[in-house]
Amino acid sequence: MQKNENNQTCRKVAVVTGANRGIGAQVSRQLARQGIHVIVTARQLPQAQQLVDEIVSEGGSAEGFCLEVSSPQNAHALCEYLRQHHGRLDILVNNAGIAVDQWVSGFDVSLDVMAQTFNTNVTGVLNCCQQLMPLMREGGYGRVVNVSTELASLTGMELGSTVAYRTSKAALNALTKLLSLELKDEPGILINAACPGWVKTDLGGDQAPRTVAEGADTIVWLATLPAGAGSGGLYRDREPYPW
Ligand SMILES: NC(=O)c1ccc[n+]([C@@H]2O[C@H](COP(=O)([O-])OP(=O)(O)OC[C@H]3O[C@@H](n4cnc5c(N)ncnc54)[C@H](OP(=O)(O)O)[C@@H]3O)[C@@H](O)[C@H]2O)c1
């Protein structure tokens, strides 16, 4: 990896959470194809390494790192690693997520499932932002993409239960907006949320109409927005989507 005189990696560096499968894996592939060095993170390092090998065999640049998103120790270790080995962080894709209460009524969902879901989908994202964004802010440039869902849009809210998942992603949307407001005097850093649509993955199931490539498209687009683009928005198919 080429470095400048400050021991900084020359190409952009991206961290993708939950990158060992599904949409996160595809986002990693697509970012690597744009010449970005991708830190493929996963709870199980060997699973990240499989994708790293694939990306490198295609001519891309990537490495694996173990990250449970709700662990401050893991996220701190990743930040220290980035600081030491790359001196920068340009892109953070908060993709890791769980939906364990699909079709469960709000009157039946257990409080344990609520807590587990919020711990990953909301607190986990906040943890990664708190631990990793200081390095990004030092560089004055950054793109953060929080992977949400249209199922959390209050405007289009319809019956469908899945209350833990949908309320957690609504909270993630609010978190996206609030963090972007805190960064209003740092125009180099953009933080947005993306709806990938209904995508064929372990989470989305076999009936989903979209491929992972289609699901990753808006996320990658937001992760590589040009200077001066918007911050604090929710997007689907590269268009603003109502909260
Ligand atoms: N698929 C859809 O239709 C759809 C629609 C809207 C939004 N989304 C969102 O898109 C994102 C990716 O979903 P997907 O469909 O690709 O799901 P997926 O195939 O189930 O993959 C989820 C990924 O998140 C990781 N993960 C879960 N909990 C984690 C934790 N605590 N720490 C670190 N990693 C964790 C998983 O790792 P392990 O392998 O270790 O479990 C896996 O890599 C999610 O945020 C999801 O809510 C998906």
Automatic annotation (TrEMBL):
InterPro entries named in the record: CBR1-like (IPR045313), NAD(P)-bd_dom_sf (IPR036291), SDR_fam (IPR002347)
Cleavable signal peptide: none
GO molecular function: oxidoreductase activity, acting on the CH-OH group of donors, NAD or NADP as acceptor
Domain of life: Bacteria
One Pfam family in the UniProt entry: adh_short
Family: Belongs to the short-chain dehydrogenases/reductases (SDR) family.
PANTHER family for the chain: CARBONYL REDUCTASE 1-RELATED, CHAIN DEHYDROGENASE FAMILY PROTEIN, PUTATIVE (AFU_ORTHOLOGUE AFUA_3G15350)-RELATED
Name of the protein described by the UniProt record: SDR family oxidoreductase
